[in-house]
Structures are given as C-alpha cells and as structure tokens.
Amino acid sequence: MIRRAALVLACASILLAGCQREERETRPDPALGSGDEPTPVTVLAPGGERPATSHPKAAFEANAFHLSEGKRLFDWFNCSGCHANGGGGMGPALMDDKWIYGSSIENIHATIRDGRPNGMPSFRDRVPDDQIWELAAFVRSLSGLASKAAAPGRNDAMMPHPSENRLPDAASLGRSP
Fold it and tell me: What pTM, to 2 d.p., does this model score?
C-alpha cells in the first residue's frame, strides 16, 4: 500500500514538473514605427485631405457665443466676488494691462485651471475644460484683448446711463407729429 502511494505521488510530481505554462506574446511589436507617433499606412482619406486640427484657443477667442458664455460663467461662479466685475477687489484687476502670470489665453487658462499661490483656487476638478477656455476668453476680453466684433458689452446695470430704448419717452421717439 505504501509502495502504491509512493508511485502515485512520484507520477503526480513528474506530471506537475512537466507542465509549464505556455507564454504567449499577446501584443507583438508593430512591424512599422516603434515611436510615439503611429506610422500611417496610407495618406489617402475619404473626402480628401482632412483639415488641420487647431488649438482650442482659436475657437474661443474669436467666437461671440463662447465669449458670452464666459461672461455668464463669470457671474455664475462668482468671479466678481474677488475680481469685482474685472476692476479688481481682493483679486487683481482684469481690465488693465498688468498681468502677473501673462496675458495669453493659455496663461489665463492655466491660472483658472491650476490656481495660483496666495489666493486663486484651482478649478481643475470643478469646471469642465471647455468652460475654462470660455472663462479665459472672456477674461481676456475685459482688458480689450479680444476682437471688438466678438466681445460682449457691459451689463445694462453697469452703464452710466440707460440705453435709448429704455428711456422714459422711448415709446414716443421716432413717431412723427
């Protein structure tokens, strides 16, 4: 009985020693191009040549919709609490030409996204990136760095006098006697 058990144990150990897991390479190295850039197989594309991708700043700086959305977000996120409608308060003024961290839209975007020491909090995880680009475009427009054709105007409440269509006798203007 002991011999039989020893024989079974010896056979089992020989079988286990003979089994090796086969190692397969699941992702073979690509035949062409081993760098970060994928090697195109062909330059042909349906519909002709694709337009070059542009940096998002071009889409936000010259677009009136994005600038007005930035203005709305500026109010919603209470940026005026520190920057006082761009004139400065606890935070620096946004209407002059003094920019501590640079006046380019990339610098303003980085300031809003990452924050700055001694005051400006980071909005990286609180505000989506496209809204940060809209805010940055609006902040640039406060100092006159955006296109006048696209930049939003001041709120009616901030104007020195009401607009002509809001004057008390506006209904009678333009009527012939």
Answer: 0.58
